[in-house]
Design goal:
GST_C; alpha+beta; binds glutathione; Glutathione S-transferase Yfyf (Class Pi), Chain A, domain 2; four-stranded mixed β-sheet; EC 2.5.1.18; 228 residues; Glutathione_S-Trfase_N
């Protein structure tokens, strides 16, 4: 049977920040969707068929057509349902600024994951890089508005905020404080405002469960690195 033009499905897992970004965007737009939980240890034909290149989640399936890569999915959601809760500014310059910071976050935020995957000198370097990345955001992106460069939540907040939530988990797992409130007061108060948004609160997975999951994950990753 052919899919309705309107059917929206999200293939994902709840412990992935990239899937959480998409879930939050759909909730903010009030779009109804079906969440299809993927088994990453035994990838489904549905995932392989819809994302044959990277074989990764999240995948958004809209009217039977797949959209992949979380930030591309978020732009797609914004362009498909522009009227409700616009997630980009109306003016072109404002949009370019939002996209600049999204690119910055996509390029640089991985250093926090690097701190999760490593130990010793490599980890120390990843932490230094993470602090540098946060300092740039603290000084140049937090402009005194409620959210990133505007008073309404938008795509940049989703790009950064969900990763910040997960990085809190990583900090706890590796027992290193990176996003310290005294060093980064603007990011810290922005984070509080971001977490207060009801659609965001609804989507964030339980913190303690994430910590348990990522503790085990780190043991696996380090054991694999040690034996290679
Ligand atoms: N750049 C991608 C990253 C997606 C990603 O890394 N997904 C992970 C889960 S968090 C995945 O599917 N991993 C499975 C694999 O690498 O085989 C995005 O933003 O969507």
């Amino acid at each position: 049977m052919e899919e309705s033009q309107e059917t929206v499905k999200l293939i994902g897992v709840k412990n992935s920040p990239f899937c959480c970004r998409v879930e939050c965007a759909l909730k903010l737009k009030g779009v109804k969707f079906e969440y299809i939980t993927e088994d990453l240890s035994n990838k489904s034909d549905l995932l392989l068929q819809h994302n044959p290149v990277h074989k990764k989640i999240p995948v958004l399936v809209h009217g039977g057509k797949a959209v992949v890569e979380s930030m591309i999915i978020l732009e797609y959601i914004e362009e498909t349902w522009p009227e409700v809760n616009p997630l980009l500014p109306a003016d072109l310059h404002g949009r370019s600024v939002a996209r600049f910071w999204i690119k910055f976050i996509e390029d640089k935020f991985l250093c926090i994951w690097q701190a999760f995957r490593t130990e010793g000198e490599q980890q120390a370097k990843a932490i230094t890089d993470s602090l540098e990345m946060l300092k740039t955001i603290e000084e140049h992106a937090m402009t005194g508005k409620t959210f990133f460069n505007r008073d309404k939540i938008g795509l940049t907040d989703l790009a950064f905020g969900i990763l910040v939530y997960w990085s809190g988990v990583i900090e706890e797992v590796i027992k290193v404080k990176i996003l310290d409130a005294q060093t980064f007061p603007r990011i810290t108060s922005w984070k509080q405002r971001f977490m207060e948004v009801s659609e965001i609160k609804d989507c964030l997975p339980n913190y303690d469960e994430l910590v348990t999951f990522f503790k085990l994950r780190r043991e696996t990753v380090l054991a694999a690195a040690a034996s290679s």
